[in-house]
Design a protein that fits this description.
The chain has 253 residues and is mainly alpha-helical. The protein is built from 11 helices and no strands.
Length: 253
């Protein structure tokens, strides 16, 4: 089964349904829906042509550059959406970057994948996307944890605890919260949801068993990358709330 531009235009009817529901319920999301529809179309068409160019050249430096661009955009998006009072970009860039390159590098060393662009770029994209969401959730949660538990943290510091000890409970809660989407996916995958990699392969004509094997590998790589990104984001972000003397910084107010 092959899809063409006519199918894309026909699918716009579904966007119209979503926009119509927004108007009817007065939730004022129709503008965001329409802008998102246009942006997704332009961005995906553009990346389609860009990937064709990269695939044809098949140069390792272009693959690394592409992954770095994805990490940069993901880190910028995660840091900006968190709504915190400090720059989340360097934190997210470090966390997402380490999680992505560690996971991709491990898969290359284990010979699960090769440097073939048709494998490397989509896999890196999935890793960056999920790590981005985890980092954004971690930044948002650690910020609310510190501000909501400011009194408890100050009490612990006054009793002689270090900043790491005083915030330990919040750190654990943050990591758990930022990984909820991924852990939930692992619980319902195959029972409630057929994820993108598996669905894409089935639509492309692959056997369901082959699609399942690929999806299992994808899930395992994602849990690794998301865990690394969540832990690193939380560890780097918590330092923003304390001074070198183990006192709460002004941004914790």
């Amino acid at each position: 089964m092959e899809f063409n531009l006519y199918d894309v235009l026909a699918a716009l009817a579904l966007v119209g349904v979503a926009a119509g529901i927004s108007v009817h319920q007065r939730v004022n999301l129709e503008k965001d829906i329409l802008i998102g529809t246009l942006r997704s179309f332009v961005q995906l068409i553009a990346i389609g042509y860009a990937l064709e160019f990269i695939f044809d050249l098949n140069k390792l430096y272009l693959l690394i550059l592409t992954i770095l661009i994805m990490i940069t955009i993901g880190a910028f998006t995660a840091g900006r959406r968190a709504g915190i009072s400090y720059s989340g970009f360097p934190i997210c860039f470090t966390a997402i970057g380490i999680g992505t390159f560690f996971t991709v590098g491990s898969m290359l060393l284990l010979q699960i994948i090769t440097t073939d662009p048709k494998y490397l770029i989509p896999i890196a994209g999935m890793i960056v996307g999920n790590s981005m969401n985890a980092s954004a959730l971690a930044l948002d949660r650690i910020d609310s944890e510190v501000k909501n538990k400011k009194g408890q943290i100050e009490t612990a510091l006054a009793l002689g605890a270090t900043s790491s000890q005083a915030i330990q409970t919040s750190v654990r809660a943050t990591v758990k919260a930022s990984m909820i989407p991924m852990t939930n996916l692992m619980k319902i995958i195959g029972l409630v949801q057929l994820p993108g990699a598996m669905t894409g392969m089935i639509l492309a004509g692959a056997s369901p068993v082959s699609a399942v094997i690929i999806q299992i590998i994808v899930v395992y790589m994602l849990i690794c990358a998301v865990t690394i990104s969540s832990v690193l984001t939380t560890a780097l972000a918590k330092q923003q709330y304390f001074t070198g003397d183990h006192q709460l910084a002004e941004i914790a107010a």
